[in-house]
Structures are given as C-alpha cells and as structure tokens.
Amino acid sequence: MRAMVLDSPGKSLRAAEVSVPEPGPEEVLLRVHACAVCRTDLHVVDGELPGPKLPLIPGHQIVGTVGRVGGRVEDFAVGDRVGVPWLGHTDDTCRYCLTGRENLCDDARFTGYQIDGGYAEYASADHRFCFPIPEGYPDLQAAPLLCAGLIGYRSLRATGDAERLGLYGFGAAAHIIAQVAVYQDREVFAFTRDGDEEAKGFARQLGAAWAGDSSQNPPEELDAAIIFAPVGALVPAALRAVAKGGVVVCAGIHMSDIPSFPYEILWGERVVRSVANLTRRDGEEFLVLAPEVPVHTEVVSYPLEEANEALDALRGGRIRGAAVLVVD
Ligand SMILES: [Zn+2]
Ligand SMILES: [Zn+2]
Fold this sequence. Notes:
Helix content is 22%, strand content 27%. It contains eight helices and 17 strands. Strands 3, 4, 5, 8, 9, 16 and 17 form a seven-stranded mixed β-sheet that branches. Helix 3 packs across helix 4.
C-alpha cells in the first residue's frame, strides 16, 4: 500500500510502498478515505514529542471503511464507516483508567505516534477505540472532528459554563469549537495571529462576537479562554484577559515555554490548566453533539503524497479550517 513514512524526526515524510497491516484479534482493518492533519502530527514530525515509533505512519484523525475484522470484533462489520482518534490503547487497570480518566492512562498508546496511523491506504485499529461516523458527514468533513473536534470539546467542557469565551489560535479546533460555543449561547472572542485579517473574518463568519490580534485585549473581560496555539506567551496574555475566577485551558500537547508573570494576574482564583488527550466518552458525546449543532468543518484537501506540503502549510498558519489528506 502507499504510505507516508517518518524515518526520523526532523526529516520530511517519505512516500513509500509498505505492506498492508494484518489486523489482530481486537482490530479492524480500514480502507482509509481521509485523514485530517493535526498540529500534533507536526510536533511528532518535528521531534517535539519524545520517542515515536520509528519508522512511523503519522495521522490520528482517520475516516475509513472496515475491510476486515479480527476474531474478537463484534461491534463493527465489514463495510462500516468508522473513525480512529488519537487514543489508541489503554491498560484499563491503572488508577486513572479505573476512575474515568483513561485520557491520563499510565500505559496509553496513541495513533500516529506509538501506533501506525492514517497517512496510508490502510490502517488497523483496536475496535474498542474506534467510533462510528455520524451519517450525513462526508469523509473529509468528518475527519477533523476526530481530534480537532474531540480535544476541542474536552477543552470547552473544562471551561464550565463560561459565557464569554476566548479562543486563542483560530485553526482547526477553534473553528469547530466556536460553532459549538455559539450553539450553546456563549459569546466567542477569537484571537488570531497578529494581522491575520482573513482568520478574523473567518471567525466572525462562524459567529464570533469579536475577533482581534492575540496581543490585543478583548473589549470585555472573559470568563474563560482556551489556548490552541502552541505559544507559551499566550498564557499570561489570556490570564490578563479573564475575569476573577476565570480558567485558562491549554489545549495543545506541546507549547513553547511560558514566560514568568506576576502573581497578581493569577490572583482572584484564576486557574491555568491543560487538557490531555481524550476519553472514549468524550468521543461518544461529541459525535452526538456535532450533527445537532450542526458543526460544519471547513477543510483544505491534499492528496496523500502531499502530506509534507500540508504539514508545511499548517506550520505556516496558511490553513483556513483543517487540512485533510484524501487517500482515495
Ligand atoms: Zn490506564
Ligand atoms: Zn490531534
């Protein structure tokens, strides 16, 4: 099969012919239709996350059709359209798994990181971590729901019932979560790269009450902010923008160092927290909610062989919405 392979971090992906994976007893083999490109893929390829499987097929927002099932798979059948997210394995026995926090599992493994992912014609995945794709979503539009949507949703939940919500970094996740937040009658304040007028227009089009540069203060105090951009300097900026009791959620897996800041901007019971990975429950909830909103994902598509170009465009902030690799 055709695949885009990472041989070592810091190098471009290599187009290769590799063998189709053999599904284990708990796995489904998928014919991949589309795989969305996540900023985490970029962190893996750039060597900002330690210890990836090598060689590695990246990609953890996979939409495909089941072609074969392992002997112990009963919930999916050949022909079903399923999605594969970032969380690919947990031990089900550690104290995190046993308390509903499998996203923090000590022995978790992740798709497109420790498990080969979806930048390929076929992928195998543990059926217990796959989701049925809601009907009515084309493959390309569904793919970004699987990480940008899921992690974004988990981050949104971490803001509680905040009414005035800031979103820092208006990329794949923010463009989905802005729609959910507006649907929930929250007021969205979108912060983009300084001077990125197109992103501001896009945010307003999706219902943001205000859109401005990340270096700007919003016109009113926020109740919460989610930082999607991997920029540590946004943490003190967001703390300054939230009201007393407000929460600042760091949604990314990697961030540049956070500069020191005066205690007074944390004082007043403001909270800084991160969101890590997803639970299967997040996925089940979000994939019910997305068609109710309904979330429309805006995608920029690339053929599989142009995965490096897609990653470059993401690195340069040139993607409006989400980048998706089209495999067949
Ligand atoms: Zn565990
Ligand atoms: Zn991701």
